[in-house]
Amino acid sequence: NAGVTQTPKFQVLKTGQSMTLQCAQDMNHEYMSWYRQDPGMGLRLIHYSVGAGITDQGEVPNGYNVSRSTTEDFPLRLLSAAPSQTSVYFCASTPSIGTDTQYFGPGTRLTVL
Amino acid sequence: AQKVTQAQTEISVVEKEDVTLDCVYETRDTTYYLFWYKQPPSGELVFLIRRNSFDEQNEISGRYSWNFQKSTSSFNFTITASQVVDSAVYFCALRDSNYQLIWGAGTKLIIKP
After folding, report:
1. From A57, which residue of chain B is nearest by alpha-carbon distance?
2. Is there a contact between B101 and A44 if contact means CB atoms under 8 Å apart?
3. pLDDT tens track, chain A, 113 positions
4. Which of A48, A84, B70, B109 is most enclosed, with most CB atoms within 10 A?
């Protein structure tokens, strides 16, 4: 099992550019989520999905889109990058919404200039 | 409102000292889960422990121990005989009734040799 993988590890964008952060898991987990981590703060939930075809907004969804066409993949799209989106992004998965322990990917460090 | 407070932004101790990291939470739910995660300098998030609201027994795992007190809404984490490898940022988190994780801001622990 590769667990939860994220690509890229690092990315630099210019303001206004769009890009997709990839997240995949090979554990057949139903529940996946995206967080951002900013200095001096805990993780904040961006979007989550309870299964293929189902997504919902978290605490800070503005400026981001997600889709869940398969159980394995949960990409996060930045529509028009802004400097405020400079952050470390973590993808996580858990076997089901009622299961407690989340497995985290290694993170993507994004800088928007 | 659901909230997790880690009042200690940074703690610095000398190796072999014991250290306690504080976590205070707020929730309206009667059933909830509390977590501790470790984030070493490499950046990944490492799950340490999960505790549900019905289990107030303290837990010990090697040099790590956790003290859960519902009466004071606290879930404190103690490292006994600290080691340099314990240096990391430690996060406390609360799972709410919507299955979302609410994170504290983290405590940076520095263990000096």
Report:
1. B100
2. no
3. 679 999 999 999 999 999 999 999 999 999 999 999 998 788 999 999 999 999 999 989 999 999 999 999 999 999 999 999 999 999 999 987 766 688 899 999 999 99
4. A48
